Amino acid sequence: SLQNFQERFEWGNGFQVGVESSYLVFNNKIGLLGSIDYQNNEFSFAQDKIVNQLPNGEKLDNSLVNEEIFIKNGSIRFGLSLLLNFGKLGISFGSNIGYLTSSKGVANRSYSDNSSMEINEELPYNFITDKKGQEGAYWEQEENPDLLFERLNYHANIGFSYKLFRFLEIEAKSNYGLGDLMNDLNDTKTNGIGRQLDLLLSAKYTFSIKPRKKRNKTPEQPDLLVLPEE
Question: When you count CB atoms within 10 A of the terminal residue's CB, does the N or C end of the chain come out lower?
Fold first, then answer.
């Protein structure tokens, strides 16, 4: 009842906020950097399909469906990196694991068939909670599919930071996906969306936490009483 014959995918913008903590040894030259971040990514995903039936059961005569979806994904990422400190310049490389917490979109869907019928719709999609055959993200599926996006994803990263002032750094970092971003719903290959590549530019407020050194308390010496000589 459905055939995909063209899929188009485009990356959009996004943002990331989070906290980092580092521990340095060897005169503050090398250490570990841990991070927890929330990341929001935006995508544009378009599909052209041939369908014979609408979600409400209405039969169609090999209708062409054009579906353009604007998607926003939110995820939590946990990272661990090796940090090299060269004074004002820092270099980090490591990995992170992310968990997809939300995946929503708005679809602009249009139909046309041999009778020149045209229908235009704008529909909300939720790629995590929507089910098969309903008026949602998986409306054309006959069985409950895997989610469009993988819930767990893994990345390798490398970053370069520069300290502008005592408490302010700027950083450029890249994250490269080690697994596919999307599942293959219809046994077709979608070009260009297998692995995710993020390019991040950020500013960081930094401060140091140092343990207090214990001071050795010396017992107070009693005052000496000086007696006059006879």
Answer: C
pLDDT, tens digit (0-9, with 9 covering 90-100), for 121-132:
677 888 888 877
Please return the burial class of 203, using the count of CB atoms within 10 Å of its CB with bins 0-12, 13-18 and 19+. exposed
Burial of 43 (0-12, 13-18, 19+ CB in 10 A): buried
Whole-number Å distance between alpha carbons of 93 and 205: 20
Q: Are 109 and 139 in contact (CB under 8 A)?
A: no
Cα 190 to chain centroid distance, Å, stands at: 20
Q: Report the predicted TM-score, pTM, of the whole model to 2 decimal places.
A: 0.72
DSSP code of residue 149: B
DSSP label of 227: P
**DSSP SS3 for 10:** strand
What would the two tokens of residue 71 be? Answer: 């998607």
Q: What is the DSSP string of 157-217?
A: EEEEEEEEETTEEEEEEEEEESS-SB--TTS-PPTT-SS-EEEEEEEEE-----PPPPP-P
What percent of the chain lies above the pLDDT cut of 90?
Answer: 25
List, in order, residues 6 or more apart from 220 with CB less than 8 Å away. Answer: none
Identify the three-state secondary structure at position 131. Answer: coil
